[in-house]
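User: Good morning. I'm curious how S-adenosylmethionine would be positioned relative to this chain. Could you predict the structure with it bound?
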Amino acid sequence: MENTWSKVDDYIQRKTQSRDEDLQHVLDHNREQGLPAIDVSPNEAKFLYTLAKMKDAKRILEIGTLGGFSTIWLAKAVQPEGKVITLEINPHHAEVAKANLQNTSLDHLVEIKLGSAHASLEELIVSKEEPFDFVFIDADKESCVPYFQAVLKLSKRGTVIVTDNVIRNGELINKESKDTGVAGVRALFDHLATLDHVSSTSLQTVGSKGYDGFSISIVE
Ligand code: SAM
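Assistant: Good morning! Here's the predicted structure, ligand included:
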């Protein structure tokens, strides 16, 4: 079945992404540089781009840059003069992302903040950073709740918050799981259930990245 999911993903990408949108060279570069293959898939990246465009987002925050594949798509969405701030703890990942961005015409739209996302988020809050329109949370899943809480302080009515990898091959509903990532996403769902000013849903996905999904929230 996974083979079919990948073939369908390839088909969708061929039919819906132009040559200009083909960022396979970015993914190839990330692998050459030894980065793990945990970037979003091309169709997921375009899904994020589409959501950001639907929101007419001008200010985007991303937690978890890796080699900047999703970052480039988010930067495309804020053109010509928006801003993407992306947080990354690993210096090598940040360097690779910087090089990938420098190969695009979008570099000036992106700020990569190197360091623990916890510290960077705190800095953004303390410095009273203008609220973001769209946030993509895609780092260590153990920290989903603290990231979500911090992101709410950087949000306004209408801010859209997407968290990746919340289904985890269906393990989301396994309360016996010893996986700390599963515990992290379960804690996120528990937290979302307590928030009456945030409306959330989640979509299960299959594709070249297997069986997973996004949670999508809007601040009301
Ligand atoms: N969004 C990227 C994409 O789709 O191209 C993929 C991000 S990857 C799934 C997660 C990234 O989060 C890794 O590069 C990892 O180094 C980073 N990360 C993990 N823990 C972090 C932390 N505490 N603070 C900031 N970044 C962190």
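The chain is about 40% helix and 20% strand. The beta strands are 59-63, 83-88, 110-114, 134-137, 160-163, 198-207, 210-219.
Let me know if you'd like a different ligand tried.
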